[in-house]
Structure formats: structure tokens, C-alpha cells
Structures
1.
Amino acid sequence: MNVPYTTARRSDTGVNNVTLGMWLFIASEVMLFGALFSSYALLRASATDWPSGPQTLSLLYGLINSVVLAALTSVVWRARSRSPQAARPLLLLANSLGSIFLIVKSLEYQHDITANLLPHVNTFLAMYFTLTGLHAAHVIAGVAANFWVVKGRVDDAMFAGRVRALALYWIFVDIVWLIIFIFMYLL
Amino acid sequence: MKHLLLRIALVVVMLPLTEAALHACPICFQTADAHLTSGVRAGVAVLIAVTVGVVGVCTVFFGRVIKRQ
């Protein structure tokens, strides 16, 4: 069966199908992270003793990752308005930044594990590992998607649609990280 | 046999109504400690905020689709 692939903007929705699909996906992801943030709020507000984020976690690792992820999102956002020839190197640069994010996250986990900051120690650390682990999985998925788009040999309109969808995805991943950073590392 | 099953089903349905105090959620009835109550409230508030946000955006989107047609 051949499913027709359209890149034209639909008159009823105002966007093309790729963008609409990405918005629907992001809506489901918002609900997923929303449930976890709700659990965080429940655990934090009901705890009689809650560890201090800045004193427990390494603020430096968190800051580095915030800057790296913001740079990554900025690079992908720039790629969306470029031709495929110009966008491909930008997406590869974004992947390098994504890899740096994951390496820094791994180093941070290693540091935490060495300091016996493990999920079973308290609910704060359980939430920290759950939220940051799920977020890191999204970064891995984003890096894989970037590779898929770079490798794909498609026409310009289809390529542009894919990069636009990627830009939306990375903005979402960046916003989730900022929320995690504020509530875990700063408050 | 059919009547017996019906009676059991009726009792199961009526039980929460007749023994409301016995089956009451301690958090809703404010008998749990204040921290737990405020925690549940905070969790529910966040979940409601996220759900209302997503549903609101969906409503605006479908409103625009209807308007364009």
C-alpha cells in the first residue's frame, strides 16, 4: 500500500501534516512529563524533609548542559530556514552538541553514583534519576532523528518539513530541561 | 443463582454509600497529616494545570479548524 506523502500546507489546519503530527506527539509528551512533574509536586509538598537541590547535585554539570542544549536548539532552529545543503552540516553540529550533553550527563551520573547518591536513598534522588533519565532518552531519540534526516535523500520540501518538525521537538526537549534544571538544581 | 449474583452486585455497589465514613479517603477527610494533604493537592493542581493547558490548546486548534472551513 502506498500512503501519499503531502508537504503542502492544508487549508483547514493551517499547517502541513508533518507539523501537525509533531504537535500531536508533543501534546502526548507534555502529558507524560506533566504526570511526572505532578508526582514531583506531590512528593515534594508532602515530604517533611526535602534535600536541597543545589547542595545535593552538581550545579556546574547542570549549567553546562543547559548552555549546550540551548545552543543545540538554536542550531536546529537556524537549520529550518536553510537549504538542505546548508542544513545538513548544522544538524550534524547539533548532534555533536547532543553528544556533549549526553557525555556530561554520564559524567554527572558517575559522580552521583560515586557519592552514593542513588535512587533508593530518597525520593528526591528517585525523581531526579527518573526525570533526567527520561529526558536523556529524549535527547538520544532526537540525535537519532537528526541522523535520519541528514541521511535521508528526499526532495527539498520533504526535507524542510522534517527539519521544521525536528526544530519543534528540540524546543520541547529544551523547555523540559529548563523546568528540570530549575526545580531540581536551583530550588 | 442469577438472583444471588444480583444481590451480591447490589451489596458491592451499595457498600461505599452505606459505610461512607469507613471507606473515606483520609486525605479528602483531612485526617491525614497536613504535609500529605498539601502534597496531594499540589500534585493534583499540577496535573490539572497541565491537562487544562493541553486541552485548551486542542480546543483553540479545533476552533480555528472549524472557523477555516
Note: The mean pLDDT of chain A is 92.
2.
Amino acid sequence: MKSKNLLNITAYVRNEDLVLILILAVLSTHEVTYYRFLLMAFIIFSGILVRSLSTTKWYWMLCSIILLFELIFQNVIKANHSFLLFFLCLGFATTKWQPEHEQESAQKKCMVLIMGVVLLFATVHKLFSSYYLSGYLLMDYLLKGSSLESLGSYFDSNWANLTQKNMESFHLVKASQIDGYRQPAYLLFPHMEAWLNALAWLSVLVEGALVFLLFRKGAYSVVAKGFLLLAMILGIYVLRDETAFMAIMSGLGFMIMKDESVSFAHIFLLLSVLFCTLTLCDWRPPLLQ
Amino acid sequence: MKFRPYMIAPLLCLLVATSQFILCKTSPLSPWKGGGYGMYTQPPPISARTVWLKLSQHGKATFYRIQPLDSRIEKALAQLSDTERHILEEFSRYGRRMSIFPNQYYRKKLTSISLDVLPILRNHDVFAYLEKPQTQNLAVKVFEIRLKKENWIINEI
């Protein structure tokens, strides 16, 4: 039973409000056209201001249709987070067609399944990527930011000389010959290699275990809740500039936990507010160097 | 297990994720896009892939960068008419798509737009020495940087 305590903010924050704020946060950092962004912002603000509007099935169906058009016109090949937003809205729209007393539990089941599928494929992609498991890519992101940026400056400064001959020999260019070249992180921090390799494997194992627990028991066992939190912490550490994704995942965590475990729900709500704010401010992590 | 309406969205999510994974493994689609389930498992296409237009004339080949768009072309955008700018923006848009998912459709599209773009650039003194290009002289190339332990390797894809 929900507590009447004023501090129990989970009783006042509805799933619908959170999804609308998540959509606004993610859209604000995406390459969407001005008109489509205005349309989405109008829908979202009207849903937040007129709260009764966002409880109707037609409202969520409309959001799903707009996001579907957004996906098609933006080109599905280019899209990433917009897909997740579309699935969230469609999930809400379909659960609103269920009888009223079943809606809350249907919403949770839907969110558990969406989260499970996303994490399952994130794990599978990582398992099949030698880049990720070797820790090279993590090292590049964690320690240096993208050292690949210097490739662009190489092309700019050497453009005039880029003929067929040296384009072919470009395959043999040593990274150290590139102007403004920043050494890959794994050469600068060799002592970190084993640690980052272990971190990459750990995050895959935690994600994999979480997927298993989500599909097996929902998110309701204490172990699943713990793993969800651990995956978030690892995610924050490993993928720390992916604030939009973290906002969505913590938002889903909140929805799933809301009536099951108030303390966990608080943590996820705080995380989602934090990441929404960071996403809206277009925050990028400061580099260590 | 009985089918319920709330399963529609997760099933659609599963369908998209499966297709994206298969496409990523069987074609050069970047795991960062098309649903983005494989983000951070490869360098992002925006910094790891470059798209070039190769123009062969008189036994000599010259490369023009489409993605990221050559800085001189970007500067020229301000001087262009609306129609010309629209053509160049379309050129750049397909360049971005090509870097995310290099395929024959985008290759053909970029080649055909290039026939309009190159004369515009010549008329605005960006590439004044260009001769009128023909389809058979044009080719679109995509290069990708791969991280190796000691060095980077650049491959054509």
C-alpha cells in the first residue's frame, strides 16, 4: 500500500509525466527539424499542463504516430533513441486499451519487456564486438574522449595532396604521422588495460544477468533490483556521455519499481531527473586530459 | 502464453533489434544507428568513417570529401542561391547516410547528385579547375578507421 507520507514523491509522480519529460529531454538533443520539434514540444507540454489529457489512450496513440513519422522522416537508418521513445509511447498507448484495473500492471510488464529486449541486444552486440571486450574503445572514451577526432584534422590539413596515389598509401599511414595526433589511450595508460578489459567483461556479465532476471522474474526480486542498480552504476561509469539513454533506462526503472519498492523507485527517479537535466543541458563529461 | 495488447510494443522492439543486429553483422550498417542497440561497441561512424567523391579525369584521380563536408564547400554555402544550397544540403545529407549505412542505393544517389553539385562548386570558384564530370568518371568511396592495439588501420568499406 502506498504511504501517505509527503516525502513519498513516487505517489505524486505518474509514469505518464515521466515519459513526457524523457521524450522532451531526448528530443532536445536530437537532430530533428524545427517544426517537428515544436509539434512534439507542444504535445508534451500540453500533456504535462493538462494532466488529465495524458491519461487517455488517444493522446498516447497520437504521440506514437508523431514519433513514427519522426522516425520515418528522420530516416530509420539514422535513428537510435527515437526508436526507444516510440516503443515507450506505443507501450503506453496499448496498455491504455486494457481494462482500467489491469493498466498499471500491464504498463510494468510492458516496460520490463522493452527494457529486457534493449539490454539483451546491447549485451549481444557487446559480446560480438572485439572492440568492446578488449577494452580499447572504453579506454578511448573513458580516458581521452575520442582520439579519432584527429583524423578529421589530418584530412583537412592534407586535403590538397590527397590524390589517388597517397589515398591508397593512406591505408599504411601510421597514426603517429598524423598532424595533431593524440596517442590512443591504451598507449598512454598501459596500466589501465587489464582494468578496463575486466570492466568491459563485468558490464557485459551484469547486463546479461539482468536480462535473465528481468525475463525470468520481472524486476521484483531483490537480486533483480540490485542488478538493475549495478547495471546503472556501471553504465554511468562506462557510458558516461550517453545521458539520454541513461535517462530513459532510469525512467523505466522508476516505472517498474514504483509500487514494488519505494526506496529503489526513489533512486531511479533521482537518477532519471539527474540525467534528464544533463541531457536537456546537453552536458558532456569533462575529459581527464 | 496468451497474447495481450501490451506485448505489441516489446514485440516490435524485438523485431527492430533483431533486424538491426542481422544488418550490422551482414552489412556495413553502423551498430550506433538503425535503433542503436550496439552503441559503444564500435567507434561512432561520425568520427570513424569518411565519405569521398572520387573524380577520375585524364588518368588522374582527385578526392572530394562529402562526409564530413569539405570545409571549403561549407564556406561556399553562404554565397549560393536557395536552389543551389538545397542541392548541396541534399548532397551532404546523403553523405551522412552513406557513412552510417554504405550501400548501392546511396552510392548511386550521391553520384547522380554530384553531377549537379560539381558544376555549382566550379561556378562559385570553389573548385575552379574542375571539368564537367560524367557518371563514369565518378565513384563514391567510404573509408573506416579501425582501432588496433599499436595503431589505426584505415579500410575501404
Note: Residues 171-176, 178-182 of chain A have pLDDT under 50 and may be disordered.
